[in-house]
């Protein structure tokens, strides 16, 4: 599991950063809808989410394109800044709730501590102290303020606040206690490596999951606040569905994105494996070719008839023949040297007449000699620490006709040409002894360095030629002995490793294939996932806003309709639907003001149903009401658009006719009177109406104008009903009756 997760670090860092950026956007939305110190507090938490998410994406960049000391320092500073914002969120929110907390000067102490540790001890201790001093404190403080909020909330908002508090408490452990490994307590006990070994998960994945937990918990708090403000059961139900579907959609997008990323990385991974296999096959065959030539020639040398007499004390002629054969085989095989050893390991002949190395009288201790003396072919690589040369020794037993081994033939071939040819090899390769010490490579800094650590008590020590010259004080390049075809960290960089044992020895060729390009190919999947996530979030947030606006608009329209209905009820007559006296008073006042302002005529027509009491007495009040309703629906059809009709009370109706003189109003009233007399009112039959008309006189009050119209109506009644009477203007003596013919 740990090996699999280590291959997914790029997507994990992407997910980690995305989760905190989502937290930032959520808190930013809350800040926009808040006021005062609460707004500032949520703004700080939004800043924490944005900055911390950006920091994780910077870690992703370092993983893909490589790291540097300056870049690492910048990432540590960004991380520390995000934790300061988290700590200030808790401080600001506590201030908004009226709690007494220190000012922002409180942040100076931990930040100064981090800087001093960085200057004195380096970047990694500073990184760890930043997590202990600021990250742990900030996350615990945030957990406390959400717990405080939960105690004051109720219902779903309380549950979400509890979730947020628990999330920050767990984040305090994952981000403030689990730190990079360091040689001091507690970082040497609780660190990334120990966490991964216990859980099988990288801590970055756990932090990302906690960030998602926090994002949706805080989003839930925000949605519950909106639902409370809107007070809509529909919106509350929508919030529940929206949260559920958002979680499902985000999980599906991230899962599909990871699958796509893994697929794209798999394509490059297979290419890497094929290229690495071709490379190791090429190197191994190249080296095997040189070894095979020597091995074949030493076997032929040992079986040559001219060699055996030399070991048995031959004459000068036989010795010359044997030396000629030895020189020929050395030249043919490309060997650096060849010699013959007797059964005691003493050199009896050397190529070109050269003697053995001074101070080494025999080769009886050499492993290749002992192997061949036992009747087998011997093979051995020998590294000369003084010259840095690596030679390959091939030996073969020299036998009597009866099969008795009486000596050993040896050919030595230098691998300098092989090393020279491979210096331009573009990928790192290493030729290591059985203990993993590099004796040949195209990376000079790795020469004489251990590739992997030597297991205590489980391996033989390096050979006497190599012992003391390997850079044993340096950390091995690999964490453990390499297995062919594995993905492993080499000096903290991910590589694909191929290993091939050489010939019959335990020496091995190792090549490395850096995998930065794999992250580049996987990065395409990450970018696609990010774009799909952004589009999905835009849709979900947009739909949420659309539903909220729709509900708020519906509520607003409903309130407006209720207001209109209440206004109509206050200004209309419930029986006829005509305007009542309240609306009449306002309209008449407005028309009088307009008449005074523009000096235009204004008249008033007051009429009622003749003998209406007799109708009620004869047919009942319901029938009388029907007559009034039918009349109120008929009369508006004969009026102008700007004429105003209202029920004055009982069976009386009043019309305001602007822009009309008294005589014109009289004519209009008489036409209306005649039209009404021809209408059939159900079982009552025809009815008549009497009209009183009055023209407004400048300076006259509304009450005086109505009184004159009412007086004219009274006279119409007195004169026999079904008549129209025009009231005299103020100041005039009693007016004579007016008829239509006289106008």
TrEMBL record:
Coiled coil residues, start to end: none
Primary localization class, coarse: membrane
One of the record's GO cellular component terms: plasma membrane
Catalytic activity: 2 GTP = 3',3'-c-di-GMP + 2 diphosphate
Signal peptide: none
Keyword Repeat: no
Enzyme class, spelled out: transferase
GO molecular function: diguanylate cyclase activity
Topological category with respect to the lipid bilayer: Multi-pass membrane protein
Keywords: Cell membrane, Membrane, Transmembrane, Transmembrane helix
Intracellular or extracellular location(s): Cell membrane
EC number: 2.7.7.65
Domain GGDEF per the UniProt entry, residue ranges: 600-729
InterPro entries (alphabetical): dCache_1, Diguanylate_Cyclase, GGDEF_dom, Nucleotide_cyclase, Rev_trsase/Diguanyl_cyclase
PROSITE patterns tied to this protein: GGDEF (PS50887)
Membrane-traversing stretches: 12-31, 43-65, 77-98, 105-123, 129-148, 160-185, 205-222, 243-261, 519-541
Keyword Magnesium: no
Name by which UniProt lists this protein: diguanylate cyclase
């Amino acid at each position: 599991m740990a090996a699999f997760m280590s291959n997914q670090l790029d997507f994990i860092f992407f997910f980690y950063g995305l989760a905190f950026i989502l937290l930032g956007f959520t808190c930013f939305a809350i800040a926009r809808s808040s006021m005062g110190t609460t707004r500032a507090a949520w703004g700080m938490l939004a800043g924490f989410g944005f900055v911390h998410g950006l920091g994780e994406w910077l870690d992703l960049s370092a993983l893909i394109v490589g790291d540097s000391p300056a870049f690492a320092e910048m990432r540590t500073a960004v991380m520390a800044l995000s934790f300061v914002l988290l700590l200030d969120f808790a401080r600001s929110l506590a201030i908004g709730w009226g709690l007494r907390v220190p000012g922002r000067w409180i942040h100076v102490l931990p930040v100064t501590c981090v800087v001093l540790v960085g200057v004195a001890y380096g970047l990694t201790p500073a990184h760890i102290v930043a997590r202990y001093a600021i990250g742990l404190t900030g996350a615990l403080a945030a957990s406390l303020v959400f717990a405080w909020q939960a105690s004051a909330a109720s219902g779903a908002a309380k549950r979400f606040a509890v979730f947020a508090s628990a999330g920050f408490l767990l984040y305090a452990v994952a981000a403030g206690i689990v730190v990079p490994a360091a040689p001091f307590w507690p970082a040497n006990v609780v660190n990334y490596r120990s966490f991964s070994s216990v859980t099988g998960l990288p801590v970055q994945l756990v932090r990302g999951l906690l960030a998602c937990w926090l994002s949706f918990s805080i989003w839930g708090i925000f949605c519950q606040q909106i639902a409370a403000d809107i007070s809509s059961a529909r919106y509350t139900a929508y919030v529940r569905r929206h949260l559920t579907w958002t979680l499902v959609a985000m999980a599906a997008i991230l899962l599909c994105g990871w699958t796509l990323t893994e697929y794209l990385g798999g394509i490059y991974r297979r290419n890497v494996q094929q290229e690495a296999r071709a490379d190791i096959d090429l190197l191994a065959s190249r080296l095997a070719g040189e070894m095979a030539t020597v091995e074949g020639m030493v076997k032929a040398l040992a079986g040559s008839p001219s060699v055996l007499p030399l070991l048995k004390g031959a004459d000068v002629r036989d010795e010359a023949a044997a030396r000629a054969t030895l020189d020929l085989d050395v030249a043919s095989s490309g060997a650096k040297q060849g010699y013959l050893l007797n059964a005691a390991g003493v050199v009896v002949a050397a190529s070109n007449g050269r003697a053995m190395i001074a101070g080494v009288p025999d080769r009886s201790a050499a492993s290749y000699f002992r192997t061949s003396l036992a009747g087998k072919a011997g093979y051995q690589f020998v590294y000369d620490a003084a010259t840095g040369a690596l030679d390959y020794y091939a030996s073969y037993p020299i036998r009597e006709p009866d099969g008795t081994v009486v000596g050993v033939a040896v050919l030595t071939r230098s691998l300098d040409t092989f090393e020279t040819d491979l210096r331009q090899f573009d990928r790192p390769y290493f030729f290591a002894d059985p203990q993993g010490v590099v004796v040949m490579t195209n990376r000079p800094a790795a020469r004489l360095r251990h590739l992997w650590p030597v297991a205590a008590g489980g391996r033989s020590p390096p050979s006497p030629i190599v012992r003391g010259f390997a850079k044993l004080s340096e950390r091995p390049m690999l964490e453990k002995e390499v297995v062919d075809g594995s993905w492993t960290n080499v000096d903290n960089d991910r590589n694909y490793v191929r290993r091939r044992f050489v010939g019959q020895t335990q020496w091995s060729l190792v090549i490395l294939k850096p995998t930065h390009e794999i992250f580049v190919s996987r990065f395409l999947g990450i970018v696609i996932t990010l774009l799909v996530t952004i589009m999905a979030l835009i849709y979900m947030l947009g739909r949420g806003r659309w539903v909220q606006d729709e509900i708020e608009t519906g509520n607003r329209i409903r309130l407006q309709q209720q207001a209109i209905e209440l206004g109509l009820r206050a200004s209309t007559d419930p029986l006829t639907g005509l305007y009542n006296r309240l609306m009449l008073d306002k309209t008449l006042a407005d028309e009088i003001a307009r008449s005074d302002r523009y000096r235009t005529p204004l008249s008033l027509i007051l009429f009622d149903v003749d003998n209406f009491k007799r109708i009620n007495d004869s047919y009942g009040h319901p029938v009388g009401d029907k007559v009034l309703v039918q009349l109120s629906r008929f009369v508006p059809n004969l009026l102008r658009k700007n004429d105003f009709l209202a029920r004055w009370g009982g069976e009386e109706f009043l019309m305001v006719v602007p822009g009309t003189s008294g005589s014109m109003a009289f004519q209009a009233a008489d036409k209306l009177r005649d039209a009404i007399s021809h209408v059939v009112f159900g079982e009552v039959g025809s009815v008549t109406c009497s009209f009183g008309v009055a023209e407004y006189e400048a300076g006259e009050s509304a009450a005086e104008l109505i009184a004159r119209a009412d007086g004219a109506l009274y006279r119409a009644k007195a004169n026999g009903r079904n008549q129209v009477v025009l009231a005299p203007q103020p100041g005039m003596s009693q007016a004579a009756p007016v008829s239509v013919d006289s106008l």
